[in-house]
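ESCALATION

Customer reports they have been waiting on this structure for their group meeting. Please prioritize. Original submission:
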Amino acid sequence: MDNADLKIEAFSLGPLQTNCYLLSRPGENKGIVIDPGMNPKPLLKRVADMEIEAIVLTHAHFDHIGGVDELRKLKGCPVYLHDAEAEWLTNPKYNGSARWPELGAPILTEPAEYALDQGQELKLLGLVFKVFHTPGHSPGSVSLLYGSHLFGGDVLFRLSVGRTDLPGGDQQELLDSIHDKLFKLPDETIVYPGHGPKTTIGYERENNPYV
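Update from on-call: job pushed to the front of the queue and completed.
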């Protein structure tokens, strides 16, 4: 498992500056997209000539799914999402876009084609990604691991953690997800969060005041 196998490009999208990640293998013109957020034009421009194998959602809050419909229709690619949020793509009330109309129109798209689950090994780009179910910020939050790269959505941030005051959020569940799953990973594991700068498991274990 060689981290050099993976090229990671980040895009900060939409009014909440949601981190979207484009993963590909060096020298290949195929990728997967994690959390295509709102106002996805920079992402769509970048992938115009690429084959997109899949859209993987760490969870289905509106700021992480705003670009799903456009990207899926443009590239004809399937969407992966945990079943706990299966209805969220089709319902603006569940995904939160109906709650903050000042940030944009209600967001709805077709359901995900595939479900994610704890312990699943997801084979994409010829690589194997391990899926962790990490609820707390939302009931279907997942984190995706390849080598020392962890794409964690809104579970763990640099010196912070995901909010738990939205529907389906649970503070104890969030802390359990972090301690029982993420903090068992090696210190050098790089965390690519849903917002803000990347960090490492070791740094957060030692310095994060919320855990």
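Sent to customer with the following note: The mean pLDDT is 96.
Escalation resolved.
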